[in-house]
Amino acid sequence: MDEIQIASLLKSSELFPIPQGLKLSYGTAGFRGDAKLLESTVYRVGILSALRSLKLGSATIGLMITASHNKVSDNGIKVSDPSGGMLSQEWEPFADQIANASSPEELVSLIREFVKKEGITIGDNKKGAEVWLGRDTRPSGESLLRAAEIGVGSILGSVAIDIGILTTPQLHWMVRAKNKGLKATEYDYFENLSTSFRCLIDLIPISGNNKFEISKLLVDGANGVGGQKIEELRGSLSNLDLEIRNTGRDGGVLNEGVGADFVQKEKVVPLGFGLKDVGMRCASLDGDADRLVYFYIPSDSTSDVKVELLDGDKILSLFALFIKEQLNILDDDKEGKQSRLGVVQTAYANGASTDYLKQLGLDVVFAKTGVKHLHEKAAEFDIGIYFEANGHGTILFKESFLSWLVTKQKDLTATGHGGSEEHKAVSRLVAVSNLINQAVGDALSGVLLVEVILQHIGWSIQKWNELYKDLPSRQIQVEVPDRTAVVTTSEETEALKPLGIQDAINSEIKKYQRGRAFIRPSGTEDVVRVYAEASTQEAADTLAHSVAQLVKSFLGSI
Ligand SMILES: CC(=O)N[C@H]1[C@@H](OP(=O)(O)O)O[C@H](CO)[C@@H](O)[C@@H]1O
Ligand SMILES: [Mg+2]
Question: Where does the Alpha-D-phosphohexomutase alpha/beta/alpha domain lie (predicted)?
Answer without folding.
Answer: 59-92, 115-179
